[in-house]
Amino acid sequence: MSAVPAPSVRCGKCQRPIPVDVDRCPGCGVFTPGNRASLVHGAATSSDLAIETAKAVEELATALEGGPGLEARYVHARMSAARAIARSRLLAEYLERVGILDGRGRPRTSHLKLLADTEAAVLRWLDALACTPSAAARLGVDVARTQTLAEQLARQRKET
After folding, report:
1. Strand-pair partners of 18
2. Phi and psi for 9 in degrees, rounded to 5?
3. Who's near 27: CB < 8 A, 6+ residues apart?
4. Closest to 139 in 3D by CA, of 75, 62, 66
5. Residue 65 C-beta-side C-alpha neighbours within 13 Å
């Protein structure tokens, strides 16, 4: 009686056989399709991203109420801002769950850099939608300059 070999697939990179119950190729270390590791770190959780994005869209609509960012022409900027907010939140939640230090006590520098980058992207999108103090101040300065310019033009018209 011969033993039945365990089912396997071939690695897309090195073409070695990989047992079905393994997350990485033993030869080159590439993740296998449908691996469980993506569920652990959240890379394959598109439904979580969609849920968080929907929440962020609602929050942005509330924050932008009465402001120029709610105009239909800014829908792509609002969606991009919402996705950036959602990614930032999910990454922050992941780091809260696993900690900023890895199993060897070293900082997760790539994760921390990614978090800093996503938070910077959020601020850029919010600034573009006039949702930051500096953007509001610039808008106020622009309005004040416009009023002053309008007043000057009105005075000049009266004089002529």
Report:
1. 9
2. -125, 165
3. 11, 14, 16
4. 66
5. 4
- Name the nearest CA neighbour of 11 among 36, 40, 32, 37: 32
130 neighbors 66 (Cβ within 8 angstroms):
no
Tell me the pLDDT of the chain averaged across its residues.
Answer: 80
Alpha-carbon distance of 156 to 158, in angstroms, equals 5
Q: What whole-number distance in Å separates Cα of residue 81 and Cα of residue 74?
A: 11
* Amino acid making up residue 124: R
SS3 110: helix
Query: In 10 A of CB 72, how many CB atoms?
Result: 5
Could you tell me which residues come within 8 angstroms of residue 85 by beta carbon, excluding any fewer than 6 positions away? 52, 53, 56, 59, 60, 122
pTM of the model: 0.59
Q: Which of 5-19, 33-47, 66-80, 119-133 has the lowest mean pLDDT?
A: 33-47
Please provide the DSSP assignment of 38-50 as one string: HHHHTTT-HHHHH
Q: CB 38: neighbour CB atoms within 10 A?
A: 14
Dist. CA 54–CA 70, nearest whole Å: 16
